[in-house]
Amino acid sequence: MYPVLPKGFVLGASTASYQIEGAVTADGRGASIWDTFCAEPGRIVDGSSGAEACDHYHRMAQDVGLMERLGLGGYRFSIAWPRVQPSGSGPANAAGLDFYDRLVDALLAAGVAPMATLYHWDLPQALQDRGGWAVRETVDRFEEYAALVAARLADRVAHWCPVNEPSVVTMLGHALGIHAPGRTDLFGALPVAHHLLLGHGRAVRALREAGATSVGTATNHTPVWVAGDTDADRAGAEFYDVIWNRLFADPILLGSYPEGYAELMPIQDGDLAVISAPLDFYGLNYYNPTLVGGPGTAAEPALGVDPAVLEGLPFSIGVVEGYPTTDFGWPVVPDALREQLLLLKERYPDLPPVHITENGCSYAMGPDAEGVVDDQPRIDYLDSHLRAVAQAIEEGVDVRGYWTWSLLDNWEWAEGFTQRFGLVHVDYATQARTPKRSFDWYAEVIRANR
User: Fold this and answer.
1) How far apart are alpha carbons 310 and 289 in whole angstroms?
2) Candidates 21, 143, 358, 412; catalytic one
3) Which domains does the chain have, with CATH numbers?
4) Residue 417, pLDDT above cutoff 80
5) By CB atoms within 10 Å of each CB, which of 6, 265, 291, 436 scores lowest?
C-alpha cells in the first residue's frame, strides 16, 4: 500500500538552476558567484562545475516530458538571476527571461503547477564584486529583479519562493566558506542573514504587487539533538538551534529576531515589518536531524572546513548513530521530519500551511546491463518520509504538499557530480536520461493519491 495523503495534496519535485541548466554563457547569461567559485582550485570535490550540468537549458522539453510521464502535481525550479540580469541590475535580458516563459508554458501544458524560486544561490558576480549580500544595495537589486520576473510570470506561476535556504547561504557561503562566495567571516556573516531576510520580504512585496497569489519560503530546518547530558552540550545545542532554525524563521513568522540578535543586525526602521509580511505557505526543506554538543564534545565530522575556522565556536557537530545513512553520510530519520513539523507548529501558532519544498536522498545506483536503475533505498526513503508527513498531518500540522529533491541527478554544489539525488539518472557524458525504479514508484504514489 502506498502512502495516503489528504485530498488535494500536491506531490511534486524540485530542482535548481545552477545545478541542472548548464549553458552558462548562452544567450547573454552573466557570470555568477558559483562560476567564479568553481574556477578556484580545491573548492569542488571532483574539480567540476555547473557549466554543463544536465544541459536542461537545451533539453527542457525532454525534461518536462518526464514530468508529465511522472504525473507531477507541481515542479519547483529556480530562476537564474544572471540569466535575467547578467550584471545584477538594469533591464531584463530578453533571451534569459524568454527561457523561463517557455518553461512555465510547457509545464502548464503538461498539467504541472509551476513553483518558482527567485534565488537559489547564483548571485550575479557583478553584485558580489560590490559586496554581495553583505551590503544593503543587493537587497535593492533583488527587489528590482523580483519585479522584472514577476511582471512576466506572476500570471501563470502557482507558487513563489523568494530565497532558498538563507541559513545555508549565510553559514556555508559566508561563515564557513564551504559554498560560494567562500567567505569565512563566522559571526561577521550576520549582516548577510539580515539582508537575505530583507530580500525575501522585499520580493514578497514585488510579487504581490504583480499579482502573485501564493508566496512562501523554502527554509532549511533541522531538529537539533543534544549530544550529551552536560550544561555545555545543552547550551551548544540551543545556540545551534537558534542560529540555524530560529534566526531565519522568527523574523518571518514572528516579526522579531531571537533575543540578543537584533542588536547585531544592520536593521533599519521598517525592516522587520517587511520581513514578516504575511505568507500563503511556509516551505520547509528537510534532510536529517543534527547532533550538537558543547565545543569539542561532539565528534566533529569532516565538514570541508579548515579546522582553524571552527575554533572558538560555542558548539560542535557530531554524527547521528544508530540509523542507516545515505551516500552523503546523512542519517535517514523519517520521524525527525514529523518532529520538525510538530516543532514548527508549536513554536509558531500562526504558522501558514506548510509545503515540504525539499526532501530527498543521495544514492549512486546506475543502470544495470538491462538499463534498469534499481534504487530501492531511495524508494524506502521517500516512502518512510511521506508516511511521516501523513502522520504529522494526523497530529494537526497543515501540510499541503511534498516536493522531493530531486527530479534529476544533478551537480551537487561543493560535492560536484559525486552525489546523485534524482528520480532520473543522468549520464553526464551523454546527457542520457534513465528513469529509476523510484521514478516509477513515485508515479504510482501520485496516481494512487489522485
Assistant:
1) 20
2) 358
3) 10-227+239-292+326-449 (3.20.20.80)
4) yes
5) 6
